[in-house]
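> forwarded from #structure-qc
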């Protein structure tokens, strides 16, 4: 239950972060909230597993960002480099707000960096405040249509998927080598399984993308 609650409230913060970063680039997500939620849950599960189960806090950021980049690319059909930019902007904004919230919380003795590691209640309060802050910042961006205006084709070029697959293999290869010293088969098989799932997702998205390009060429040839 402890791990599950940490995943839920970490996912809530990632959900707010994703809405903020997508809004900053004026990417329409009103009918894609289920995609945002899925990305947030996968990111949270990855983060909590590495930080709390493996206790490898220093190595958690790279796999989380990689997961976010790949899933944004696949689910929103954006170029890989553009997805990376969205992810970095979101992470930087979240880190800034987290630092501010933590400073205020420490000043009023609500929570500290150390006590949040042992107190689930303080951790939940911290995550809820971060999430509320991110959503409050997102609201005016959405309402007044602030941010960068971007456009993208209805289908990606193939190299985005090849780069995504290479990135998945590389990051999870590094992650497996990091955790292998623990000698636990479970901790080695889980990253491999997750890598396989992401690669299957990239492949299915690639096949769907080929179909989009084919349909697009057929429409153009009929004009």
């Amino acid at each position: 239950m402890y791990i599950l609650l940490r995943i839920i409230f970490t996912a809530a913060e990632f959900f707010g972060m994703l809405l903020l970063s997508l809004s900053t680039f004026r990417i329409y997500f009103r009918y894609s909230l289920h995609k945002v939620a899925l990305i947030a849950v996968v990111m949270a599960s990855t983060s909590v597993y590495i930080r709390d189960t493996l206790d490898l806090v220093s190595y958690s950021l790279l796999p989380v960002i990689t997961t976010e980049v790949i899933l944004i690319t696949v689910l929103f059909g954006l170029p890989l480099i553009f997805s990376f930019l969205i992810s970095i902007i979101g992470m930087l904004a979240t880190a800034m707000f987290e630092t501010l919230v933590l400073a205020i919380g420490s000043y009023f003795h609500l929570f500290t960096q150390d006590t949040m590691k042992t107190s689930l209640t303080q951790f939940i309060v911290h995550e809820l405040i971060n999430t509320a802050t991110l959503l409050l910042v997102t609201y005016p961006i959405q309402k007044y249509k602030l941010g960068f205006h971007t456009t993208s084709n209805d289908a990606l070029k193939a190299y985005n998927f090849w780069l995504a697959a290479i990135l998945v293999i590389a990051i999870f290869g590094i992650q497996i080598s990091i955790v292998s010293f623990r000698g636990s088969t479970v901790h080695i098989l889980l990253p491999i399984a997750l890598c396989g799932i992401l690669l299957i997702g990239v492949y299915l998205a690639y096949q769907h993308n080929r179909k989009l390009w084919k349909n697009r060429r057929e429409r153009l040839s009929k004009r």
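QC bot note: The two ends are 59 Å apart (CA to CA). Helices lie at 2-24, 33-53, 61-76, 80-107, 115-118, 120-143, 158-179, 185-221.
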